[in-house]
Amino acid sequence: MNTRVELRRGMYRDSVVLMQVSQAVAACRGVAAAIVAMATPLNIEIYERLGFDPAAVEGASPNDLLVAVRAEDDALDVAAAELERQLAPAPTSQADGFGSPPAPRTLASALRHGGTLALISVPGQHAFVEAMDAIQAGVSVMLFSDNVPLEQEIALKDEAARHDVLVMGPDCGTAVVGGLGLGFANALRPGPVGIVAASGTGAQEVTCLLDADGVGVTAVLGVGGRDLSAAVGGRSTLAAMKALDEHPATEFVVVLSKPPDPTVAETVRAAAGQLSTPSLVAFVGMGQGDLTAATAQILVALGRSPTAPPEWSAPYERAPRPGFIRGLFSGGTLCDEAMAIAAERLGPIASNTPLQAAWALDADLRAPGHLMIDFGDDRLTAGRPHPMIDQSLRLERIAEEAADPACAVLLLDVVLGYGAHPGPANQLAPAIAGARDSAQRGGRDLAVVVSLVGSRSDPQGRDATAEQLAAAGASVHLSNAAAARTAVDLIEGGGR
Amino acid sequence: MIQLDESPAMVTVGASLFADALTAQVATPRQVQWAPPVPGSEADLAAIAADVRTHAATAESVRRLVTARPQWVDVLPAREALGLGPREFLHAGPPVAWADASGPIRGALAGAMIYEGLAENFEEAGRIATRGGISLEPCHSRAAVGPMAGVVSASMPVSVLEDGENGRRAYCTLNEGLGKVLRYGAYSPEVIDRLRWLERVLGPLLGATLRQRGPVDVRSLIAQALQMGDECHNRNRAATSLLLREITPDMLESGARSEDIVAAFRFINGNDHFFLNLSMPAGKVAADAGRDIPGSTMVVAMARNGTEFGIQVSGTGDAWFTAPAPPVKGLYFAGFGPEDAGLDIGDSTITETTGTGGFAMAAAPAIVLFVGGQVSDALANTLRMYEITLAEHPFYKVPILAFRGTPTGIDATLVVRSGVLPAVNTGIAGREPGVGQVGAGLVVPPMSVFVDAARALARRAEPRGAPGALGMKEPS
Fold it and tell me: In sequence order, what DSSP letters do the residues of A434-472 get, joined into one string?
């Protein structure tokens, strides 16, 4: 075995591109381990976990590209060549034409040539400046970036109000504008419902459940998870509600959030009461109903009778299972909702995004009892792709849980749509089958429950994905609440 | 407010995955080719963007720059125009003391001291300067600019450029021609003799001509020259010809002796760079119009003295941000090579600061024969400069870019964000005093001066909620 570790100062590629580079290098024959990533603390931790020498990356900054490969002696050069091939900039036809401009380097430059909506996903510490460019050019912003400081969020939203544009975010995962899905977005049919969402996966869950009942949307306007905090005061929520109210095609306005600051909640409810369009304000969370129930309320308000969300259930034994639920999520709101449902019946659920401070997980993300992890949380995504794109951390953890005798039920979410992994079931189905097999060998019947978020038109195929996961032994539910309840039932031995 | 009915025209910055996802939905997003800013500058850039004044102040700076109307109104002795005393000397670039001055500046100062009768020779001039017998000041501190060494002394005639918009004035010496000339640090008798001729014959003749005929519209000459293959920094052939066409009848009518008029005509006609010394103060008077607006991030001066490269920014007053002057990469005259070259020098970067020179290189493809490179480089240079500038010049147009205005008004923060540095065309001075010009080429300014400027702007930033000093409204 031979190791090559290298820091390339000032070289930058986005985390999704680097994930693909890492995978291509790791796939070379004779390569035992490879990481190509920006040298963030999180990525250095992974680097060390892969057994590389910490001393070799001392003094690295997140602006440096970290390259580390361990391979059989003669394979190292082949891997190095593959690395260079992967990192070589794609030839752009733009820059070499006679008089055709090079690609813009900033949003300020790009927007001089038009544009009506900017989608920003640069690392959080750089997002403010780009977003300011757009707002001051009179262009609305979808700000996918997370790790944006609170005072910058407020400054952006105040500036947006002065320019009469909307800031969706920061940490806004999904939006649908003018029929176009932005960020992680499901392929939704046009319809009468306009959604303002402080919760990305919450909006995806609701719109996919509406889709299952044949109801579409005019728009989904994300506002970012902190918009309804006391500090931000619902600045974007109120602006988005107004935009939808003034939009003739929107017949019903939905405001969707985790339980907000009480004063802000009052303001939002009061604003909803002033709209000329019928509306529903759904603050979902512990004791306040779930997303599936909110969807049913919307359908009823539209004069429809809700049908039960589709499920592809597995024939698990109904006897109680000794052990605990381990929930591994990519969607924050899905994780919250599952925790709220499980905690009501099972008590404390340890988490990196706990319902109560006392239930917080340590940085190693381990706990002996029930636990649910949101792999999409800010602290787990710095310098790496979102778990909806890169499933590797979750796949690792599935294998670990399979080996843990305390794990009785695995609860997973799978989010489909544009931007998400093109074939998540191709990785998850074998992982689920493998986990069940290895548990079986240890004498356990490991139950796996999947909360599937997808529309019938999503590029990955909603039903095909469900069938593939069900065939691997999972119980698959389009309703996240139903999935969570099924998981609890499997622990308690109740249910249908 | 956000448009909900039409499919939005998307611009994306960040993960290419999201642009791909839009393409999959049959949208055609334009993706920014983003990279992080210069490491360590993130907080400063954010503080500047958060300053309520930045956007409007910077827009106002560049508006004033591009609407300036530089006119050549007079030629006067420097002692009159600039108030220079007998022992006061101006030089190019940021401030520098004799002890740190480059060869060309020392040579030019010595020549100017000989010319003013303060010294007999270089050695004596050096002794006087060393013991503080003269006072030194940058041209920029007196609303002047000087090519290369940029040395100005009291007796030298200077052109007076006036901004027709606001009456502001800027000054520059008369161009001496190529070869052994003071501005490249030469001080031999022929150099001094030429300076005396400029003082006694050409200066008074041009001054009388201008006072009699009225102002020459320099902005219009630059606009025309850009369409005739000049970039008005290292190529001024068309502009010089246009200028002669403009003033010759007036020189003839000035009442001067006909042999002086003929000599003046021959001198200007024989010096393709004569117009440079008008293009530079035209830039200076425009850049100064954009000066001193609190919060503005626009660069109002780039200048070098052969020791340091420095910039000034509108929002930070007279502060210079400096770094060691870089070497120039280019072509050398026969008999010279890189070992003979001094470091980057001169105030002529005022052209790049105001949308001509390297920034207008696409208008001057023939320039590559002088400064090196390919014609495609000339085009690419101009196109790249749009990334770091605030406006397209409303009067200076580039035919081959479909008459797009030249990239004008450098935003220091865009330089730091994009990593794109200003493209500068320049001459190369010999490193030793007395040698003169040895070549011409391209120079890359040091990034650190822009980073330092951003730091200073960030320190002066007023966070949101603070009262605005300018009281300007956002443009609607």
Answer: HHHHHHHHTT---EEEEEEE--TT-TT-HHHHHHHHHHT
